Amino acid sequence: MNRRWSALDKYALVSNSDAHSLEKLGREANVFSFDSGIDYHKIIGAIKNRDKEKFLCTLEFFPEEGKYHLDGHRGCGVCLTPAETKKNHYLCPKCKRPVTVGVLHRVDNLADKKEAEKENFIPYKNVVPLQEIIAECFGNGTKSKKVVAMYDKLLGECGTEFEILLDKSIDEIRACGGEVLGEAIDRMRRGNIFIRPGYDGEFGVVKIFNPNERRKNLQANLF
Q1: How far apart are CA 58 and CA 119, in angstroms?
Q2: pTM, entire model
Q3: Given a cut of 80, is residue 5 above it in pLDDT?
Q4: Predicted confidence band of residue 214 (pLDDT cuts 50, 70, 90)
């Protein structure tokens, strides 16, 4: 989003996870590759020089999941794009009170480019945490025994979480976690997922399967 503002062109953008709990550490990350060894100076050099051979990409959540991604008025259930907000003169179309302006709108006001440039900058990849994907596939909570057991099994048989989310073959994932999980991770990699953006303090919804698909899969006993 911030690549639409040319004032930031001279900077490399990095992605780091919050630290609310141990399990949430490292959910967003910066990916580096060095011929030999790794230390502070190599990392800083790759960032400062925006060296795409050493600073490969950032791994990030889908921004729509944020509580203030779009504009809106939660009390009225109204969610608006920046263009819709401007068309409505920054007022809620239901109650006519001012809407809460979101992050995308702020970026839109600062932007001097119509679209974010990609080819000249460090690339990024959007990911969904593995435990959340498993939970959706099983129709259980992320802390349930079934989900935790599958999460541990995948890590034991297929590698690290990022390897599973980004690199491991879908066939291997299917063999370990089942057909639905393989399909879910494949969809996440392609960005073919269901998103309802957050607004006015309401977290966005990022799911692999849309509500109709989830109902059908539950009825078919696939989860």
Answers
A1: 14
A2: 0.85
A3: yes
A4: low
What is the C-alpha separation between 13 and 31, in angstroms, rounded? 12
Q: Which of 112, 78, 105, 82 is nearest to 92 (CA)?
A: 78
The three-state secondary structure class of 27 is coil
Phi then psi for residue 8, to 5 deg, are -100, 5
Q: Are strands 71-73 and 78-80 parallel, antiparallel or unpaired?
A: antiparallel
85: nearest Cα among 65, 105, 67, 69 = 105
Q: Which residues pair with 59 in a beta bridge?
A: 29, 125
Residue type, 113: K
Environment class of 154 (CB within 10 Å of its CB; exposed 0-12, middle 13-18, buried 19+): buried
Give the tens place of pLDDT for each residue, 71-81. 999 999 999 99
DSSP letter at 57 equals E
- Amino acid letter, 78: V
